[in-house]
Amino acid sequence: MSSNNSKAYVSMKSVGHRYDPLPDAPMAVQNIDLDIHRHEFVAVVGPSGCGKSTLLRMVSGLLIPSHGEVSVFNLPVTEPRDDVGIVFQKANLLPWLTVQQNILFPLKHKYGNYSKKDEQRADELLKMVGLEQFSNKMPDQLSGGMQQRLGIARALLLNPDILLMDEPFSALDALTREQMGFELLKIWEAAPKTVLFITHSISEAVLLSDRILVMSERPGTVLDLIEVDIPRPRTSDTINEARFTQLTNLIRGHIYEPQA
Amino acid sequence: MNPKPKSWLKQQCYRFASVIFFICFIVIWELICRLAEVPNYILPSPSSIVSAFFSVEFSRWMTHLGATLRVALIGFALSILIAIPLAICMVRSELLSRTLYPVLVVIQSTPVVAVAPLIIVILGTDDPSRILITCLITFFPIVVSATTGMLETPEEMIELSKSLRAPQYRETWQIRIPYAIPHIFTGLRVSITLAIIGAVVAEFVAAEEGLGYFIQFSTSYFKIPQAFAGLFFLAGISLLLFKSIHWIQAWLFPWSLPKKSKY
């Protein structure tokens, strides 16, 4: 599924960013070159503060890089795009809206209203993430895992072609986290999207993605770009495969001894 | 690791702590007045205050209460109508907030009691000046709480709005204001008690009716038990208004209350 489609969909060319405009201020990220193919699942791993989230914000158009260029389908990204859905770190739900209103929020917020058809689509999405019985509940009545499933469903509402996920499972406990990973794979396999998945869990990255971008500490640069050649569909047995252990060790080595 | 269940008596003690304290306080007060034979014009006993309360006709109480509530509630409502839009403008424009904030602080730190006579001179002795006095004292907590709440909106919620390229008024209306609701209600709770204070201060300066006027007039005729009766009535009304803000919040915005409401 990975590189059989050679056309670059999301493309970063020597991208870098410094938040402080002073010329000798430190760079948050530096010299990132990455081409993501259509419907490819790319994970980004690296130590805390290496600029993973900065990278995601630059792809989303929320942040314009001070160096280099990000483009989607050869068009430079200068503002947030309609075909991008973002899943935030903590589910980022609005506590004053019901589950159904939360999932429909992107439409309500962008256009001011939504139609009966949109409501049907919302119901389908809720069903897909197993929350159809909770549509009238408030977000704080849901468990952490359910909240994040709702966060994912909301990001899918406008049927984006690109899904950006900023450490989406980091607030969850280990068991829920593993489950959510498999659920995400199911969703992605049913409706393929180009995914950029930020995480600091190495095994999560190996389990989910086609390729993994390993980043160094600040200023964040590319340490390695690793092809995950474990066949899909991946299940809980994947973790026991020799290749899985090999890859996680490889990445762990990169992160702990970057200068070696 | 559940704490040991409390005994029935202890549970009731916790539940009615403030009521029990209040009753004890009244009983001790009554005893001191009777045993030490304190004259009524220095410290009236609770029983004499109660009889003074009932010696005043009900319709007179209602007239005074009506006058005070009218000023307090109109002033309070006006404050909300001014403070919330002002807070929105100040959140959206840094220039405006830099310009106005010092002015607001100056208004807030000027004692209203000192300004009240001047306002009466300028605007006359009718309701408008009393309402203005109430406004001056009530609107600051609302502006501050609304501004704080809107500025504290988590960056990720704002990013959600930005990623959708929604118009800014919807960011304000659908994200910042709802997020600020719990803050705003904290401000409203502070403000509603200040509204009563404002109305009473205004009545002290110039009025022909109202509970503040009633208290002042009773004292000047040495009807001290009657003044105390007015005072307690006023305190009760204040408490009721404070509570109703909480009820309104629970009714309109149940999600905005902390999970286990303490008061």
Structure description:
The complex is a heterodimer of chains A (260) and B (263). In chain A, the strands form two sheets. Chain A has a six-stranded mixed beta sheet, with helices on both faces. Chain A has a four-stranded antiparallel beta sheet with strand order 2-1-4-5, covered by helices on one side. Chain A has two domains: 8-83 and 161-256, Rossmann fold (3-Layer(aba) Sandwich), CATH 3.40.50; 94-159, no CATH class. Helices cover 33% and strands 22% of the residues of chain A. Chain A contains seven helices and ten strands. The model of chain A is unreliable at 1-6 (pLDDT under 50). By secondary structure, chain A is of the alpha/beta class. Chain B is mostly helical and 263 residues long. Chain B has a single domain, classed as Orthogonal Bundle (MetI-like fold). Chain B contains eleven helices and no strands. In chain B, helix 7 (127-151) packs antiparallel against helix 9. Classes of the chains: A alpha/beta (260), B mainly alpha (263). At the A-B interface, helix 2 of A face helix 8 and helix 9 of B.
Brief characterization of the structure:
The complex is a heterodimer of chains A (260) and B (263). With 260 residues, chain A is of the alpha/beta class. Chain A has 7 helices and 10 strands.
In CATH, what is the homologous superfamily of chain B?
A: MetI-like
* Morphology call of chain B: flat
Tell me the number of helical segments of chain B per DSSP (H or I, 4 or more residues long): 11
Give the overall form of chain A: globular
> Termini distance of chain B?
26 Å
Q: What's the tally of helices of chain A?
A: 7
Distance between the termini of chain A: 32 Å
Question: What's the name of the CATH homologous superfamily of the largest domain in chain A?
Answer: P-loop containing nucleotide triphosphate hydrolases
